[in-house]
Amino acid sequence: xxxxxxxxxxxxxxxxxxxxxxxxxxxxxxxxxxxxxxxxxxxxxxxxxxxxxxxxxxxxxxxxxxxxxxxxxxxxxxxxxxxxxxxx
Length: 88
Ligand SMILES: [Zn+2]
Hints:
2 domains, elongated, transmembrane, membrane, Zinc ribbon domain-containing protein
């Protein structure tokens, strides 16, 4: 019984958690959260891909696109870190 619970905790920490973090991160980058949940859940190391990949499109409150160089920057940043363009 206790071993069962330990097993579930192990699954939750090493599979479910990366899955959920991956789903949230993917969603904040304009990607499909279900696809990335499955991918990160089945194979947790892919979480690194999810965390470091670029956003697909501007997402309100998370990422916006620089009008000059088209790179994605964080929503709260006021200066583009790639071309130093000031954003309003
Ligand atoms: Zn820029």
